[in-house]
Write a structure and sequence with these properties.
The structure is a single chain. By secondary structure, the chain is α/β, with parallel strands linked by helices. It is built from 6 helices and 7 strands. It has a 7-stranded mixed beta sheet with strand order 1-7-6-5-4-2-3, sandwiched between helices. The N and C termini lie close together (10 Å). 36% of the residues are buried.
Length: 214
């Protein structure tokens, strides 16, 4: 197995346009439906990740992977949702969300639509280093219901990194999980001298995990 990293070249429409468009939509929406960073006082030494994906996506499997990763300096807690906006009935019990993971399955046509419809309920400031897209089942073109170019266009439009792997493989799942934890550490403010905005300004990396040819 090898990991190929591709630096986005901004070949689609400028991400600033989409972020500004998302900000305009956010202003026109009911503020109670909008998820924003720092909506609540963060828990000390705790980072909360929200995984958003269609009902049949492997959210629970990936959530267990994330919480089982050994992180010595802070605690990881994970919340899951099938779509945004989040329900209002338990909003008072919900912790501050530090990072959002949008999960998409290449063999599930509904998966991309769910993520696309949920994006408008996320405050534009999340797209400054507090969001990533995780794509599963990306290696086998024969089972794809969605064109990979549609997925990469969406990620590039919102200037957010895309991580991809076969989640049936524990090793690949763990690699993607560790990549997410590194971003979460920065987003939650636990990485000295590094901010999400600084990472965002340097460009984003799409990770493709593929099998060796031999």
């Amino acid at each position: 197995m090898r990991i190929i990293s591709l630096l986005s070249q901004g070949q689609y429409q400028p991400s600033a346009f989409f972020i500004a468009q998302n900000l305009q939509i956010s202003r026109e929406m009911d503020g109670s439906d909008l998820l924003s960073p720092m909506q609540k006082v963060p828990d000390p030494r705790t980072a909360t990740i929200l995984i958003v994906g269609a009902e049949v996506s492997p959210k629970k499997q990936f959530a267990e992977c994330l919480v089982n990763i050994n992180v010595p300096d802070f605690l990881i807690q994970v919340r899951m949702a099938s779509y945004l906006p989040l329900p209002k009935d338990n909003a008072d019990q919900r912790p501050n969300i530090d990072f959002v993971v949008f999960m998409m399955e290449m063999n599930n046509a509904k998966s991309l639509a769910t993520v696309h419809d949920s994006l408008k309920y996320l405050d534009a400031t999340f797209f400054m280093g507090r969001v990533c897209f995780v794509v599963t089942q990306g290696g086998d073109d024969s089972i794809h219901c969605t064109n990979i170019k549609e997925v990469t266009r969406l990620c590039d439009a919102y200037s957010s990194p895309m991580l991809s792997g076969n989640f049936d493989d524990e090793e690949e799942r763990s690699i993607v999980g560790r990549q997410v934890i590194q971003m979460v550490e920065i987003a939650a403010g636990f990485k000295a001298d590094v901010s999400p905005l600084l990472v965002q300004a340097t460009g984003h990396i799409a990770q493709y995990i593929v099998e060796d040819d031999v």
